[in-house]
## 1
Amino acid sequence: MHGIHRTILNRLLAAWVVVSLLTGAAVSWMGVSRIDGQLVALATTELLKTATASLPLLDRAESERNALNQLAADFVRHHAVAVEFRDRNRNKVAAAVNPLHADLDQNLRTQAYSFPADDDRHFKKLTAEGQTVLRILVPVKESAGGIAGYFEGTFLIDQETVGRLRHEMIVTLLVVLFAVTLTTICLYPVILSLNRDVMRYSNDLLKGNVELMEVLGSAIAKRDAATNIHNYRVASYAVRLAEKVGLKHGEIRDLIAGAFLHDVGKIGISDNILLKPGPLDADEFEIMRTHVTLGVDIIRKSDWLQNARDVVEFHHEKFDGSGYIRGLAGEAIPVTARIFAIVDVFDALTSKRPYKEAFPFAQAMTILQQSAGTHFDPRLATAFAGIAEGLFREVSNTPDEAVELRLQALITKYFFARR
Ligand code: C2E
Ligand code: SIN
Ligand code: SIN
Ligand code: FE
């Protein structure tokens, strides 16, 4: 599985877990509130009927409370653990306890009790002897709206009703979790396909940029040679030296772009200098040197081509500081440019130029070795000396098309391959 697929899968799984936990918690919380609400509503409805019936009886004197006591006894037998009537002054005027739940009632009475301060309905959940009860208080209202008294009932929560409501809640929970899971499963291929599109677009863009790099490199090569094989050769040499000295993947990519574009500024050098069959005089060489600044200027417009900038700008610096255009020395010269300088000169020496014939390999190597420490980073020059003969033989014995193909493989490896 590609790294990107695993990343998408991991993120989706994480999202699935989080959303499932959150919705699960929300559904459970809502379910519990709903169960409480329904139980309270059922019990309150019963209470309110009897509360209305009690209205004319609440103010009677103590000797006339038989009817009220009867009302309490009837109610408690059918519905409750215990009930109480209070008058408008909140004094208890009648009460009844269901004999079946006398122990539970006794136990509940040991718990702190406070009469609510306002005249709204109230309910409270209490537990005793492992059972849960609801204590509900309703005000008994006169028709004018005033408070005539209070009726309070303590109800054992009906396990059958609770079980039914809890079952409904679990079903809801499972449906929600199923929906979340299904959504996640459906999202995965959608995200994968969107990602594939993005990858394709970004690959097309990269392909366009690599083509731009090759096109620009070939444009300048055509000025002084029939082919752009020089670019392919120096790029191959540069990659092999870079791999040998352990450059990072990204540095090698920049080095390839630099190899293609290093002399792009020569586009701005006139033919009478660029193609001059003999040595340049000082003024001409002064102009020739501007190919570096011209090159930097040409690639300035493209962010992507900036990857080549270190090589374009510093490929004529020398290790001892005597090069151009800055006179940088040693490690101040980017390593890509230090590597490129070696392979560029090596290829210039072993190739025919408008102004010179090709040197034999051995002579080229002698010139190169003499410049180690002055023109070239000695460590890199030594590393190159170790591989130069093999590289040279390989390239000389290979048709130009094959050199180009081999470099295309390196471009694929360093620009396009997923790592
Ligand atoms: P280029 O031909 O690609 O050469 C690149 C570099 O290779 C040169 O950078 C130089 O460091 C090295 N090089 C090339 N040929 C020789 C050589 O015969 N002996 C030695 N020791 N080194 C050599 P440099 O000198 O900064 O030149 C930059 C560019 O200027 C050259 O690129 C070439 O296009 C042009 N150029 C340099 N000298 C002459 C010349 O005498 N006549 C003409 N027509 N162009 C020249
Ligand atoms: C060049 O493009 O600078 C020279 C071509 C070659 O070396 O064959
Ligand atoms: C060159 O080939 O670029 C010139 C090298 C030199 O004249 O030393
Ligand atoms: Fe150059």
## 2
Amino acid sequence: MLKDKNIIVGVTAGIAAYKAVDIVSKLKKQNANVEVIMTKNATKFVSPLTFQTLALNPVYVDMFKEPRNFDVEHISLAEKADAFLIAPATANIIGKIANGIGDDMLTTTIMATKSKVVFAPAMNTNMYLNPIVQKNIDYLKELGYEFIKPGVGMLACQTYGPGRMAEPMDIVEYMINNFYNKDLIGQKIIVTAGPTIEPLDPVRYVTNHSSGKMGYKIAKEAEKRGAEVVLITGPTNLDPPMGVKVIRVETTREMFNAVEEEFNQCQVLIKAAAPLDYRPEIVSDVKIKKKDGDKDELNIKYIRNPDIVAHFGKSKKEQIVVGFAAETNNLIEHAKAKLINKNLDFIVANDISKDGAGFKTDTNLVTIIDSNGKTKAYPILDKSEVAKIIIDKIKDLINIKS
Ligand code: PMT
């Protein structure tokens, strides 16, 4: 994704400078051309040689050192930048840029660039929450500078709170995101993911094997392409993608209500979740106790849950509604029946009897069936690639509708 992109990484003086080493390494793995500018104080935390070795480019610190190129270096770097990342960004660099100060190689290059500039702040919690720093951040945001919110946690200064630089992987993903084709701007997309759970008593519940991986990958792909994404998710162990609105639910009825809340304002609903079709008719409010004896049995009566995708497929107006079908046998026949009965625009059928497909895996084996019955089978692919195929198909349908 970053092949031949010129990413300038500015490193300022914070303990998180060691994480910038990982960021540079990860950007290189994405085939970016990475050039690093360090402030003088940053070199006290990490040696320029470390960055030079990873970036395979000279590291810039001093503006007045013998130039390596004939060009004025801060201007040539500013001009060649496809994107600029400041990580870690201290209160000092944020304050300087907000006030138009250019007094070293890094600040002058930032002042001279027309490329996107992204700050990944890292500092003590009190510094971060200081109204002066917050005012500088707000002002820079107004001017179009971007910020990757720091995380909350125990900081090197032994305080707990916001100020810990975002994780290198998240920062790199944010940078990759910049270069995505934002072809879904203006579209609101609801994605449902994961299982639902239905309680039996205060300690027991019924659920299924859905991990949420498929739905989360779809949400991520749609967000990268510029859509406003609402991820309605059952319980999973996954971190939701950055930039999406997350609504957490447990039961199928809660999932139904959450979709209903958002549906009228959306253009697309993708039902990748595996909601339970049935729930116990009676939920005991005390723990169900076993009785003595081998003949003891527990009989639970299950009643139907609402079929969410069928409800919205049938009541949709202009929306595109996409369903999934998880099948162990007669894949195409069952999936086609669901496509018609639930009035879907297309259905993604997974053959969950095959290795590497369906629940929990990182890959999936899908066949997509259109509303006109046309089918296309795909080989085993990573779920992120399946997500891309689904979002491309939705984009085609949006184009046809408009
Ligand atoms: O989460 P992962 O571990 O990554 O696994 C991915 C997956 C296998 C869960 C996913 O790819 C998938 O197939 N999701 C649908 C699973 C399912 O419930 O299939 P179904 O054939 O029972 O349902 C058909 C469609 O109706 C689905 O879009 C489902 O979301 C929807 N449905 C089902 C029941 C219900 N009460 N309401 C619904 O909206």
